[in-house]
Write a structure and sequence with these properties.
alpha/beta
Length: 219
């Protein structure tokens, strides 16, 4: 029997190996703006945070430049980047097992919601999710602390009344921090782009080494 009623999955680094497409899209946007490319070898720096924060903090763009960067990124990502995605081995089995039990499952990603929906379709996983939840174009919903309650409501839940029935699964400290700020449980995955140390710094205590480990940690 599952411990939780609402199970929220991060997308990049938890469900999907997506670093290549994200990096290509970032490089395109930065080059189009005639700016120098920062070192993008460390995926943990830009996979996890909201996109506009990447341009502000990693690229050192102004707020207006960052907005332009986001537009250029999304254009390229929509045309090419989103197709550079593959599912982590075994994730489909995890989702199939969860779907057969009495739980509600959602994607909870800081990625633009339309892209998150399209990627889940590309990966042929849509049948397993009751909702696909992501960020807004205007940036009003971009952090996990805002996305987690939104995802629970999208699943038909009362977030404030049912916090103890919610778990967030993710691979970065952004996911762990969001769960901590929302007061919900968190399961970190070690196979993604973040680090265990960073997640532990945000209070994470439970970790899955592989997708196959996830089911046992939710019981």
């Amino acid at each position: 029997m599952n411990k939780y009623k609402y199970i929220l999955f991060d997308l990049d680094g938890t469900i999907s190996e997506s670093a290549g497409g994200i990096r290509q899209s970032l490089e395109y946007a930065i080059k189009q703006m005639g700016k120098p490319l920062p070192n993008l070898d460390d995926y943990t720096v830009y996979i996890g945070p909201p996109l506009i924060d990447t341009f502000l903090n990693l690229c050192k763009f102004t707020k207006e430049e960052s907005k332009q960067g986001v537009e250029l990124y999304r254009r390229y990502y929509n045309e090419k980047g989103k197709y550079v995605n593959k599912m982590y081995d075994g994730i489909d089995n995890v989702l199939r097992t969860l779907k057969s039990s009495d739980v509600k499952i959602a994607v909870c990603s800081s990625k633009y919601e339309k892209f998150a929906e399209e990627i889940i379709e590309i990966l042929k996983l849509r049948e397993y999710f009751d909702a696909v939840c992501g960020s807004t174009l205007d940036g009003s919903r971009k952090d996990k602390k805002d996305l987690i309650p939104y995802a629970v409501r999208s699943l038909g839940g009362d977030f404030e009344a049912e916090k103890k029935s919610v778990v967030m699964l993710g691979d970065t400290y952004f996911d762990a921090r969001g769960a901590r700020l929302c007061g919900v449980d968190f399961v970190g995955v070690e196979y993604g782009y973040g680090t265990v140390e960073q997640m532990k710094a945000e209070g994470a205590e439970v970790f899955a080494k592989t997708p196959a480990d996830i089911i046992g940690l939710l019981k």
